[in-house]
Amino acid sequence: MEAQQIRDTDALRRLVPRSASGQRILLGVVGAPGAGKTTLASALVALDPRASAHVPMDGFHLADQALNALGLLGRKGAPETFDAHGYAALLARVRRNPGHVVYAPAFERTLEQPLANALPVAPSAALVVTEGNYLLLDAPGWREAREQLDEVWFVDGDQEVRRRRLVDRHIRFGKDARAAEEWVQRVDEPNAALVGATRSAADRIVDLSQWQPAES
């Protein structure tokens, strides 16, 4: 499947799935670390903020305390460092739209920790966008999460740009340049390869390299 260039909000709006029955739509945005998933998810929600919500997978990172107990702190960001079953259960609850606000966890990058009950999903949210690395992974928990999604879009693009973006992000949140490069090479890139292998399972491949954000 060839990637579709998305250059602006008009092009993006034309691609958003609609529900013929009026039921809530859950749209997944997947891609390798640093691919631009959050950029796309935020743009989708910004199309109609009063009728949309954002539920990122990153809120289901295991806390460092749990990762330490499991011996996984040095692999933070790999599939086994998330509560995939909890993520799937939250998506199922959001899909049911129980008629009251559902609160989802966020991930606080300054603390590098999940933050419980931080993101409200109101009953009026007709579109819920969730984004993360492993939405298409064929593994327990992740399969159940995928079953809750109406569509999954894979964010593709220049791999060197993606890698530089990752290094810059790690530096911005506290690592020195050497530690950032080492983490990207040792942790992020193996995860990126794992995510890349799921590309063919996506409903749509999108390229944001020409994206022009709307002026405020």
Written description of the protein model:
- With 216 residues, the chain is α/β, with parallel strands linked by helices.
- The protein has one domain: Rossmann fold, CATH 3.40.50.300.
- Strands 1-8-7-2-6-3 form a six-stranded parallel sheet. The protein has a two-stranded antiparallel ribbon with strand order 4-5.
- A hairpin with a 4-residue loop joins strand 4 and strand 5.
- Helix 6 crosses helix 7.
- The mean pLDDT is 93.
Main attributes of the structure:
globular, about 220 residues, two-stranded antiparallel ribbon, 7 helices, about 20% strand, Rossmann fold, alpha/beta
CATH architecture descriptor text: 3-Layer(aba) Sandwich
H and E order:
EHEHEHHEEEHEHHE
Report the strand count: 8
Please work out how many helical segments DSSP would assign. Answer: 7
- What is the residue-averaged pLDDT? 93
